[in-house]
Amino acid sequence: MTDAAVLSARDISKTFGARKALKGVSLTVGRGEMIALIGPSGSGKSTLLRSISGLQTIDPGVGVIEAFGQPVQSDGRISGRVRDARIRIGFIFQQFNLVGRLSLFTNVALGSLGRISFLRGLFGAWPQETQLAAMAALARVGVADYAAQRANTLSGGQQQRGAIARALVQKAKIILADEPVASLDPVSARKVMDILRDLNRTDGLTVVVTLHQVDYALRYCDRVVALKAGEIVYDGPASGLEHKQLVDIYGPEFEDVFWEGTPK
User: Fold this and answer.
1) Domain membership flag for residue 147
2) Which of 8, 34, 194, 195 is the most exposed place for a label (fewest CB within 10 A)?
3) Model's pTM, two decimal places?
């Protein structure tokens, strides 16, 4: 891992039964980058992101994943020191991963559990620092008015913004977002992507986001990494990704969903 890199995956593979989801993939993420992972369903995007975070193991072998210079996993095993790296990585899930019966405030405050005692969190005895941080984070993403509302009564866009606020309370330096707008309406999706871009540009957070919407990848991210059948087939500036390459990545059906503004 170079001095400027905050994430590094080297020669990692992942097999599910007879299917090879990742085939010797290597990826280095620099501090402050905003990267889109794109590719058709089953290309390995989510598998790569979950492997980087240590949410799933890679195949035994030469593969190594590091974050902030700390080992996440190698040889198919999660490192015993993974917590040191994970505490600075916020993971945003497609289905929000909030506790529905708890208030939005409590869900966001849970981001502080890596820094306070488990019992304080269990009984909701949040330190003042956490309370202030949670409300500030909710305000930052535009949902402070819903702090007292149960998470499962909120819209998908409101819940996803709550999930981002939780990562802010966690004091994450990296946000890994796995299809964060896939289940949202277009307006909510743009709001979530605007928030992620603002956190990247204003706060300097490193953001890696998997997306089905190629137009969002090109609009919001400076660097695009495209996967196909478990291999990286493009890694470079969004401006350098041509229409003919997208057709090669997604197949001829890509023409049927071609939208105005996609590069030709």
Assistant:
1) yes
2) 194
3) 0.92
